[in-house]
Amino acid sequence: MGHRAPRCRCNRNSLDGSIHRGCSVKSKTNGIENMMDQISRRILWEQPGLQVWEVTIEDDEAVLLDAANSLFDKTDLDRVGSYCSSQARKNFIGTRIALRQVAAQIMAVDPASFTIYRSQCSNCNGRHGRPEFSKPGEPHFSLSHSENGALVAFSESAIGVDIQKMQPLDRFREARKRLHPDERRELDAVAPQSQTAAFAQLWTRKESYLKAIGSGLCRSAAQDYVGYRFLNDPDSWSIHDLAVGDNYRAAVTFARSLKY
């Protein structure tokens, strides 16, 4: 597990927008070669210092589990065992593998070399804040998956990403009550036939923002406004809506200092 993977020949290993889409850094760890066929990824959106990758996960759970046993630390393996749903388990494994693959490409190290831990929650100081790599100099990241949709984001500073599959609006009635009052008013002004998509987009902004600040839903979702006006707010965070499949909505939140 301690060996270094071969360095990418293009010698691009930073988050300055220059990761070469054709290069790959492959580990010789058992299970990795077969796993490569189970997970595909592409850059969905990027700018200097930030990348969002869209991940597609295939159905061979046995291959994914083999790769997880080769790559994951005890904490992540315990998480794998906690999922009762096969789809949720595959999504968790697939996004974590993609996270390690791309991070290994950025840092030119073996994908098994990363240790992931939870930072302190910015709201209550509990150990359920942002997931982070343990070593200085490793990129910040965020993960999200919803049914067959999955995203992995990397940045030079704190970042949050979220993807949601759209559901009938009545499925979100309870969540809707937790929105900021101005957000509820904005939704009320949307035509009924467009409210499902509008709510899903707003909620992905909300969750990506709460991930970026390090609290998640431990912080009241009604406390912060992330509606339409927020997109041009001059403060420290920027939110960008991401173009994903027709049945999904997604957003990423990042430090405004990275926006060019």
Give structural notes.
With 260 residues, this protein is of the alpha+beta class. It folds into two domains: 32-161, Alpha-Beta Complex (Ribosomal Protein L22, Chain A); 167-258, Ribosomal Protein L22, Chain A (Alpha-Beta Complex), CATH 3.90.470. The protein is built from seven helices and nine strands. The strands form three sheets. It has a four-stranded antiparallel sheet with strand order 1-2-6-5, with helices on one face. It has a three-stranded antiparallel sheet with strand order 7-9-8, with helices on one face. It is globular, with a radius of gyration of 18 Å. The N and C termini lie far apart (39 Å).
Write the layout of secondary structure elements.
Blueprint: H1 32-36, E1 39-47, E2 50-57, H2 61-71, H3 74-82, H4 86-107, E3 116-118, E4 131-133, E5 140-146, E6 149-155, E7 159-165, H5 173-176, H6 181-188, H7 195-213, E8 237-242, E9 248-255
Antiparallel strand pairs: 1-2, 2-6, 3-4, 5-6, 7-9, 8-9
Helix pairs in contact: 2-4
Supply the key terms.
single chain, 260 residues, alpha+beta, Ribosomal Protein L22, Chain A, 2 domains, four-stranded antiparallel beta sheet, three-stranded antiparallel beta sheet, 7 helices, 9 strands, disordered N terminus
